Amino acid sequence: MPNVAIVGATGAVGQEFLKILAERNFPVDELRLLATKRSAGKKINWQGREIEVEETTHQSFKNIDIALFAGGSSSTEFAEAAVNSGAVVIDNSSAFRLNPEVPLVVPEVNPEDVKWHKGIIANPNCSTIIANVALKPIYDLAGIKRIVVSTYQAVSGAGREGIEELEAQIHAIANGGEIVSQAFPYQIASNLIPRIDVFGEGDYTKEEWKMVKETRKIFHVPDMAITATTVRVPVFRSHSESINIETERKVSVAEVKAVLSKAAGVKVIDDPTQDKYPMPLYTSDTDEVYIGRIREDFSIANGLNIWVVGDQIRKGAATNAVQIAELLLKK
Ligand code: 2RA
């Protein structure tokens, strides 16, 4: 059984790693929990074991086979040390995602890319993973000419701080109190913020470029026509995405529903007569990517509109990383 380390074990994604490793019965011999100095010494119970959180150092990875990095700056600081110690790093930060030497993997889309890793495998951005799981069956069915995606991203994407900030602001609005905004540039309660991460080329944000560039890399289509607008919404967990797709080949809505219904990792909830469609309140804490509102886009010859929702911390981060670890074990 592999020895596993979790770097960033006390954060939102790190905590989810613990839950998912247990739920999926991932075989673990030693589990080493690593975090910043501030969290060192904390005791965490996992599967009947009491494990003390240690400060991450360059020496933390001795005898570790798989190192799950939850994200953030620790990846650039410690991933190389983990690889040099012989571990395979599965990294949830954006540090290595576009590095041509590093596979970027969504197990439902490009599992074969795990095979050529050189020590690091990158876990894609949360909104990219959720979109890509939904796009793959349509890509295989009809080819894709162009994608226009608009996201409605939960505060969990900004980690524990984001979740606590929305909670505090809702409380302040209800009880009268000061609204403090630190995790986000503006008040998020009762608001939408059409800016996630920093602005970059062409006035698109880094989050928008992640969706474009990561999707191209995962699908191995470097010139895929894709554009994105990413928006933070006052929802705790689960990102939602409106995706407009122009397919290469004309397909009926019935055909699309049929392939999506059978696709790995997907659950279709789509019954307008019963008012059924996916919503973030009900998809949180689950691993599937939910798809509904599947309609023809009548404004173009081969157009489709779909509505996609997935738990950002699970399939958008921790579950996808653990699935990559499972592929590694199979390999
Ligand atoms: C967000 N994409 O939602 C980020 C998290 N990886 O902010």
TrEMBL record:
This is Aspartate-semialdehyde dehydrogenase. It comes from the Bacteria. Belongs to the aspartate-semialdehyde dehydrogenase family. PANTHER family: ASPARTATE-SEMIALDEHYDE DEHYDROGENASE, DEHYDROGENASE, PUTATIVE-RELATED. Residues 3-117 form the Semialdehyde dehydrogenase NAD-binding domain. Substrate binds at residues 153, 232. It catalyses: L-aspartate 4-semialdehyde + phosphate + NADP(+) = 4-phospho-L-aspartate + NADPH + H(+). The keyword Amino-acid biosynthesis applies. Gene3D superfamilies: Dihydrodipicolinate Reductase, domain 2, NAD(P)-binding Rossmann-like Domain. The keyword NADP applies. NCBIfam families: asd_B (TIGR01296), PRK14874.1 (NF011456). The gene is asd. GO terms for molecular function: aspartate-semialdehyde dehydrogenase activity; NAD binding; NADP binding; protein dimerization activity. Homodimer. InterPro entries: Asp_semialdehyde_DH (IPR012080), Asp_semialdehyde_DH_beta (IPR005986), NAD(P)-bd_dom_sf (IPR036291), Semialdehyde_DH_NAD-bd (IPR000534), Semialdhyde_DH_dimer_dom (IPR012280). Pathway: Amino-acid biosynthesis; L-lysine biosynthesis via DAP pathway; (S)-tetrahydrodipicolinate from L-aspartate: step 2/4; Amino-acid biosynthesis; L-threonine biosynthesis; L-threonine from L-aspartate: step 2/5; Amino-acid biosynthesis; L-methionine biosynthesis via de novo pathway; L-homoserine from L-aspartate: step 2/3. One of its GO terms (biological process) is 'de novo' L-methionine biosynthetic process. The active site is at 126 (acyl-thioester intermediate), 239 (proton acceptor). SUPFAM superfamilies: Glyceraldehyde-3-phosphate dehydrogenase-like, C-terminal domain, NAD(P)-binding Rossmann-fold domains. Keywords: Amino-acid biosynthesis, Diaminopimelate biosynthesis, Lysine biosynthesis, Methionine biosynthesis, NADP, Oxidoreductase, Threonine biosynthesis. NADP(+) binds at residues 10-13, 38-39, 156-157, 312. Phosphate binds at residue 97. It is an enzyme of class 1 (oxidoreductase). The lineage of its organism: Bacteria, Bacillati, Bacillota, Clostridia, Eubacteriales. Catalyzes the NADPH-dependent formation of L-aspartate-semialdehyde (L-ASA) by the reductive dephosphorylation of L-aspartyl-4-phosphate. Its EC number is 1.2.1.11.
